[in-house]
Structures are given as structure tokens and as C-alpha cells.
Amino acid sequence: MAAVIDGTLFLTTFLTLFVIMDPAGTVPVFLALTSTMTAKQRARAAIQAVAVAFGVIVAFVLFGKYILTFLGISVPALQASGGLLLLLVAMDLLTGKAEEPSASGKVNVALVPLGTPLLAGPGAIVAAMLAVQSSGGTVAGWVAIILAIVAVHVCLFLAMRFSVIVHRVLGEGGTTLVTRIAGLLLAAIAVQLIADAVRAFILGG
User: Fold this and answer.
1) Is residue 80 in a domain?
2) Is position 2 within any domain?
3) The total number of structural domains that make up the chain
4) In 3D, which of 133, 134, 136 has the Cα closest to residue 68?
5) How does pLDDT run across 168-187, given as a tens digit for each residue?
6) Residues with Cβ < 8 Å from 64, sequence gap 6 or more?
7) SS3 readout for 152-166
């Protein structure tokens, strides 16, 4: 009997998206952007931000293949560009130079910049699309990817919903440490993506 879920793909997709979307690292930015909100408004903002991010990621998971075909982009090219992009994001996390967006009265911060591009940014989109390419189109693969995306967004919601408590427990030093570790792991993932892309180019050439 075929497996219902691809455990390896689930774990890989979950960890990759978790590192990129960084629930713990989102806490201080979320607190800053919702500093003038009440507890109820902050809870609603968390739901809206996660819903927007989930919608964007799922849209690219479902239609990313057609976008690649239409643009004539190969999987190795996507892997290489995605690896370079993730490496840049990792460098920002490691050096602490990532820009933190500020709140604006003209825009719902739960949608922009929280939902996108803070949560559903280019790195997360590329990672989700690459996961689809790795699934081979199997049912077990699709189940693994969807569950991984849902699990990561649940973590994001919990981190923002209980952001005050999380930030109090981690403190400034703890939040910075988590961000640096996430940057290191993301850099390793990026290098692996580039190496796989180069290998695919060589074998395909």
C-alpha cells in the first residue's frame, strides 16, 4: 500500500519554510507594527497576516509550474536563482541588516508588509515551488507539501498571537540568537540548492 504522506518531503519542506519565514524572528516586527492596536485588534491582525501569506504560498504551489513553463524557466535555473536569493536573505539574518518595515496608517499592516512580503516573501515562494518540483507529482508528495505549509503557518499564527509572551520569554538577546541560527541554517540550505542546480546543469548538459 502506497504511503499517504512523504515523511521526508514533509520534514524538508517544513524545516525550510520554517527557517525562511522565521516565526520567532517575526515577533519583534509584529509587535512594532501593531504597537498601537488593542489585544483584540492584534489577534485579528495575526489571523489576517497568516491568511494572506498562506494564500500567496498556495497560489504559487498550485500555479508555479505553469508560470515556469510560460516563461521558459528550467528547474535547475529556478534552484540556482532561489539558492542565490536565499543566500542573500541568510546574509541579512546573520549580519542583522534585514530591514524592518514600519507601520503606515494608509495600509493594513496585516496585509502589507506582514502578510507579504515579510511572511510570504520571495524566499518562501521559491522554496514552496521547489518542493513541488521535488514531489514528483505524487499524492503522498502533495499531501506532505500542503501539511508542511499548514504546519508552518500555524506556527506563525501562534508566534504572533502570543507575541508578547514569546518576546518576554526570549528577550532581545534570545530573539537575536534565534535569528542568527536561522540565518546559518538558511545559508546551508541555499548552498545546497546551488550545488544541486550546478550538478543538474552538468548532467543535463
Assistant:
1) yes
2) no
3) 1
4) 133
5) 787 878 877 877 887 788 78
6) 125, 128, 129, 132
7) HHHHHHHHHHCHHHH
Mapping DSSP to helix (H, G, I), strand (E, B) and coil, where does residue 78 land? helix
Give the cell for residue 24. 520567532
**Cell, residue 97:** 541588516
Q: What is the rounded radius of gyration, in angstroms, for the C-alpha atoms of the chain?
A: 17
Q: How far is the C-alpha of 133 from the C-alpha of 152, rounded, in Å? A: 19
Q: Dihedral sign, CA of 13, 129, 121, 36?
A: negative
Tell me what the mean pLDDT of segment 64-78 comes to.
82
- Determine the structural domain holding residue 97 and report its residue range: 7-34+47-204
**Which three cell numbers, joined as nine digits, stand for 23?**
516565526
Three cell numbers at 21? 519565514
CA gap 73, 20 in Å, rounded = 23
User: Is 42 within a domain?
Assistant: no
More confident residue, 41 or 175: 41
Q: How far is CA 42 from the centre of its chain?
A: 21
Half-sphere exposure of 88 (CA within 13 A, CB side): 9
Residue appearing with cell numbers 515577533: 27
The CB density around residue 171, as the number of other CB atoms within 10 Å, is: 10
**Domain contains 122:** yes
**Would you say residue 195 has pLDDT above 80?**
yes
